[in-house]
TrEMBL record:
It comes from Paenimyroides ummariense. The lineage of its organism: Bacteria, Pseudomonadati, Bacteroidota, Flavobacteriia, Flavobacteriales. PANTHER family: 3-OXOACYL-[ACYL-CARRIER-PROTEIN] SYNTHASE 3, BETA-KETOACYL-[ACYL-CARRIER-PROTEIN] SYNTHASE III. This is 3-oxoacyl-[acyl-carrier-protein] synthase-3. Keywords: Acyltransferase, Transferase. Residues 284-364 form the Beta-ketoacyl-[acyl-carrier-protein] synthase III C-terminal domain. The keyword Signal does not apply.
Amino acid sequence: MSNVYITKASTYLPNDPVSNDEMEQYLGLVNNKTSKARPLILRNNGIKTRYYALDKNQNPTHTNAEITALAVEGLFDENFKKEDMELLSCGTTSADQIQPSHASMVHGVLKPGKSIGINTSMGLCNAGMNALNYGFLSVKAGATENAICVGSERFSSWMTADKFNHEVENLKLLEEKPIVAFKREFLRWMLSDGAGAFLLENKPREGSLNLKIEWIDFHSFAHEIEACMYSGCEKQENGSLKSWADYPSDEWLKQSLFALKQDTRLLDEFILKKGAQALRASFDKHQIQPEDMDYVLAHISSNYFKDGLREEFANVGLDFPVEKWYYNLSEVGNIGAGSIFIVTEELMNSGKLKKGEKVLLCVPESGRFAYSCALLTVC
């Protein structure tokens, strides 16, 4: 088995940062009214700026495939050219289409001039870590000498006002209050666009900082808990999901079947508790201790979870001091499958890391409560 190193990382964030006060200029007003929920949600999530692949007329400026390709382009240099790429592994929640696969579309944008291996990981926040794991295992097994792994999102086009206006009209017809259900509007002020990319190689680059991937673990609790975050379906009273394909087409808009929804009750009950349980299992499996870690990079959807996450980790014997946690949520927003790539790239290129230090990556996914974690060594 080969060792596997992240030898370079790159990020692409579309357009200029968007402040809290500018969000509705880009996403539009639902029913021509300013959102009453937005200030409350923003106060809790602590996000100050984010990035959208939109202009102020809600027109897209980039596709997800283009955002992903631009992040990948940042990996190419005199040491590694586009034609050297052997494998492209992409993870996203928000592909531009159902088919063809996202990685296939990104390969088409990149045009490296040759056939390469591709992999697409779909899902939610763990899609990025699954894409990383595919590349890691390929290089480790010697199937390829390198792999490019990317996590990306383009959520903004899912959140424009026109996607919500039809639901408002239906609520009026039902003589309900003309507001969008909180479980949908909650996500409208949480999600943003961007991509992060890693170059994985079987040898470290001399004269530069590298991150050796020691291991990557995954933990799913779908056998215990019903779905919490979902799209392309509707949740039934018994907790099951009914697929969009099982509804008449005239119900797709009426029930907003393709909207991304979240059960915030389940989120609060399980997201932190199960995350701590998962990380404890990985620490026991690999026989490591919290004091071995120098940096903890945890993807969180909201600053609301910061203190609770530390407390839950401490409750299972994983007490990481505050100074070891590294976040950039407030500046770049919640980029789903791309977030862990983007924060790792920032730390990797910050000048703070020293050889021999350990970096822990933690990613929760509320879809049906799945978690991933990885250990990196600076070398």
